[in-house]
Amino acid sequence: MANGEEYKNIMSEMIKKQIVILGPDIAIMKAKNVTELAINPDGEVTEINGEPQVALQRLIDEYVALSGLIVKKTMEPLLAKYPSVKVDQ
Amino acid sequence: MDNWNLTVVLIFSVAITGIVISFCVYIRKLKGTLKAEGEKRESENNRRMYELSILKEIGERAGYSLNTQRIADIITGSLKELIDYSTTSYILEDSQKKELLFKCEVEESVSPKFVEDVKSRMVAALSILTDQNYQERKIEEVVAGTILDDENNEPLSSFFNIPLTVGDKVVGILNVSSTKTGLYKEDEMTILYKITAQASNAVTRLQDVLDSEQSKLNAMVVSMADGVLMIDMENRVYVINPKVKELLGIESEEISIFDIIEAFEGKVDFRTKLEECVKLNRQEIVEETYLQHRYIRILFSPVKDKNDDTLGAVIILHDITHDKELEKVKEDFTSMMVHDLRSPLNGIRLIAEMLQDKKMPKDQFLQSAKMIHESTTNILELVNDLLDVAKLEAGKFIVAKEKGDLQAVIASRINFFQALANEKNIKLDSYWEPDIEQIPFDEKEIVQVLNNLLSNAIKFTDKDGKVTVQTLLLRKDEDVKNKADSNKIKWFISNTSPALMKRSSDLLICAVTDNGNGIAQEKIKSLFNKFQQAENGKKSEIKGTGLGLVIAKGIIEAHGGAVGVESVIGKGSTFYFTLPLE
Lengths: 89, 582
Known about the structure:
The complex is a heterodimer. Chain A is mainly α. Chain A has 4 helices and 2 strands; from the N terminus they run H-H-E-E-H-H. Chain A has a two-stranded antiparallel ribbon with strand order 1-2. The longest helix of chain A is centred in the N-terminal third of the chain and has 19 residues, at 4-22. Chain B is α+β, with helices and mostly antiparallel strands. Helix content of chain B is 49%, strand content 21%. Chain B has helices at residues 2-62, 68-77, 112-130, 186-222, 242-248, 257-264, 270-279, 321-355, 362-394, 406-423, 443-459, 480-486, 521-524, 530-539, 548-558, and strands at 87-94, 99-106, 139-145, 158-166, 169-178, 227-232, 237-240, 284-291, 294-304, 310-319, 402-404, 427-432, 439-441, 466-474, 507-514, 563-568, 572-580. In chain B, the strands form 4 sheets. A 5-stranded mixed β-sheet of chain B has the order 3-2-1-5-4, with helices on both faces. A 5-stranded antiparallel β-sheet of chain B has the order 7-6-10-9-8, sandwiched between helices. Chain B has a 5-stranded mixed β-sheet with strand order 12-14-15-17-16, sandwiched between helices. In chain B, strand 8 (284-291) and strand 9 (294-304) form a beta hairpin. In chain B, helix 8 runs antiparallel to helix 9 (362-394), helix 8 (321-355) packs across helix 14 and helix 10 packs parallel to helix 11. Chain B starts with a helix and ends with a strand. Classes of the chains: A mainly alpha, B alpha+beta. At the A-B interface, helix 1, helix 2 and helix 4 of A face helix 3, strand 4 and helix 4 of B.
């Protein structure tokens, strides 16, 4: 079972990756739509208010809704780094 | 009372005024809400119209070409209506040329550094999306629009990238950039992602339809025995089947024209042949080239559409290795036949010269006459074999079948070959399944077949060996092994022997089995081939044209039967033939 810190790390890495792919403005704006997350201007997740698993899923959904399943593929290496973190396929 | 009335009127007036004011405020508020909603709806409608117009434009301008560059041009070229920006750009991957195309449309004058910054961010994004390193990749660059300004120091302050996909493959990235900080609102950016996604979906659907149609064509091309390759006018490999990869020894999945040119390097000037074919609109043929231990014939042919416009060229690679081998074997066969005729003829000529000497002793005269007889017999045997083969090949070989006693014919042949078998102390016997009725066959021709099989068996069996002729009746669905076991027959035939599988009717099987050295599997298939058999005959220590088995096969097939061989090295061989009962 992943702890809160692991969720923070994976989500921070995810946002930073999307910053490179999509650009910083849109990547951070979309991340901020996830109300459970507090995010600093560098895209770092500083706080999770709520269930981390739910927040992570919502973050992924935000990016997938924006640019399709292709973005999900770029997240696979990240998820592989954190095997205890599970998301919907 | 007046005061009371006045108070009532006053209160009433205040209430009415309050109601009127509240109503006015409500109306004003309602108007505001309606106006805001109207503006929102109008804005939404405008965006929807924009979406539709973009999709329509893509449909009209890009047509059905699936040209991603045109689609990128349309989207980036139409953004002015929707959004403020300094540059719009796209980067596309050309997998054929193995390079990237970067195109930047400058709306507001920016510095070259700004453009460079945009490009490097797009390359970084594409690298992550495709999991490939594009840093070293050649990038073709096109910058258009407003002139770049070296003096302009305004940096890249706002940008966003939109991945461009077809199916599940990233084909490029669109980019919108500005010198202004925090310029883009979320909904403005989101709408562009949405439009791009819809354009991608439209292209993907079209691609799926084309893929579905093309898969039928591909299935045909893939199954072709020849290598088939099509190169389009932009030197892209449009069609390629696995045989091309096999013939050229290429293993990579994505193949470009450069891989093909490299494979032909030093053998065929592929590029020149291709250019000549397309420019001069004519077929180009490379009769023969040796590649990857094979001989290949190459045909270049222009491909045109219904308007006679050239679409590219199709290249057919035909493996002629087997033809070349056959050609050599045919040449060897002819040489051998000429040699086999010339040797005894030379002998006869020399003996004839000697016979002119009238003083020749009688015993030497008789010896010479015997030699002439032997030589002419050999020539006659060879000529007869060749005539038989020629008749078989021309389909002029006719058998005259009559119901007869095959058992008696076999017994007669056993008797005939007994003396020869005795010379090598070979045990020669036979087995005939009881109760087999008479069947139709051409006795003269079957005698020839039995002669051939028995003489071969005795020739190739060592001293003190054994040769047996066994005959069984085999019903259509009968198990060959069980039938042989129940008749206590030992041979090398099995249920999987090709001539016995998928029998359509009852038949008679006659097998000649020896306990000689056996024949290697790779040689068995050439036993009934005219040219290869002659080649084997040439190498063999035992004299003969080697055409006997070829003739035996022709005779049996003319009877409606089949021949076969099963052998185990070191144990022996079974040569057999089948004959239909009717």
